[in-house]
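Many introductory courses stop at the sequence. We go one step further.
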Amino acid sequence: MAYEKKSIKTILKDVERGEMYLPAIQRKYVWKDSQITRLFDSIMLGYPIGTFLFWKVKKETVNHKEYSMYEFIKDYHDRDMNKNPAAPHPLICTGDETMWAVLDGQQRLTSLYIALQGSMSRKLPRKRWNNDDAFPKKELYFDLHSEKIDDEDITYNFKFLTAEEAAKNKDGKIWYLVKDILKYSTEDLPEVILNSDWAKDEVARKNISLLHTRLVRDEIINYFEVEEDSIDSVLDIFVRVNSGGTVLSKSDLLFSTIVSHWDNARDEIDNLLSEINKKGEGFKFSNDFIMRTCLYLLDMPVTLKVETFKKDSVLKIKDNWGDIRKAITDTVDLLNEFGFNSENMVSYVAVSPMVYYRFKGGNFDPSSKSELRKYIVIAQVKQIFGAATNAALTNIRSALKAAPANSFSMSNLNNVRFTGEKTLRYTVDEIDSMFDTYEKRQYKFMILSLLYPNLKYGQNEFHLDHMHPHSSFEEENISDLILPDGKVIDDDTKEDWRRRRDALANLQLLEGRENESKNAMPLTDWLKEPGNRDNVKYLPEDISYELSNFEEFMEKRQELMSKALKELLL
């Protein structure tokens, strides 16, 4: 290996000229904005940013052996550009031209390329994925008034901003578009920059000069070159380099192994993830899920070990990919029908047995759907996959193998035992304990989805609704409340009610728009609205629905809901 140095500006020119690509064994780009800004802070401070490892290979070799290469992401977009585009194939070459493929340093180099040549479009919270305005285009700016502040771990303030945000220059900040510094040569900055209005003060002048020095002049990209023609040799180097740290997960390394034996694996898996994660309100399935599920469906050991993942195993996945893909997409469609999405899904591992059932020829008839809904709720609420995940998956797979292939029934899984003596069965006491407050809203939604099975979850968004509104229990609304016994509510009762207002007995599922219109409306008033009373499930009869009668309301509604759950789960 030969040790070399280059400036950031020079290395980015190599990317722009098509002299540097990413091999298929690399994983997707995953860095957060905070990691990028910290990288630039380190660069400005003169700290080492790690060594890079590049594979130097002839373009002719890449073309002849049909190695898949990918371009760097330039304008990252959470929805539309979150995976690397394929490089031209064949690569253009007229002789013995060489290229580099990045084996170590992909995340850092991609971050530099996005920040200094492209843009970043992250999804804004609480906006829908199909809304283009949810992804504002931002570029990296540098506050030229950055100075070291005591107790702050960041010295130089970099931030992704829209052009409009940067133009405001609030709080004494002067935002400079970082990529503009690359317009200038390695010589000193021209006077037109150093004499501009924002550079008249000493701090700004010092910072713009340092920015130019670090990004244009200093050779801070330290890298090694390896020269190999065989992808197997390169994979061995890649695994050795990456498995020593915590940067890549086992599934990432497994993914690299698969790609070395199945050239189109990256595109196939990326396309599948893109498709299933866009279903309904969106999911967050990962490479980890796909890799483990492939092993699971083909009755292989589910422990992910790169060194034991043989070529014949990869070819088995490749040969069965069409059926694997269909089983996964069918199952995600069913999850969407059940009302699941990234906001209420707790364990993606729990989905693999559902995919297994479908892959082995299982039907999604009404009876099986009802049982599958029970399974995915129970497995998550009871946290079956919280520990010893591989053992849990294997035990369920063994039970499914012994069961009829075309129909799903929880009775076939009731005798499966898991770590901590857990099972998928419920006892009377466990059902009664459900009505204590769960910390996770996701679990509340899951249990309610069993009690409200006929809602059209796949067509509408449903919210957790407090029947007695959450705000009704605040001090200003409850301080002088008269209870049914004629006494004024005391402080202990107030605190007890505030704790229990989030319990299942005070919750229902309402379509999103209906829930927003209900908002803080008292339960008695809401029930008087046309049609509301007739459509409410588990509403106790012959009692008062005033807040003052909260105690009896909770007791009677819990009885109705508990009875229904016991009929479903016992």
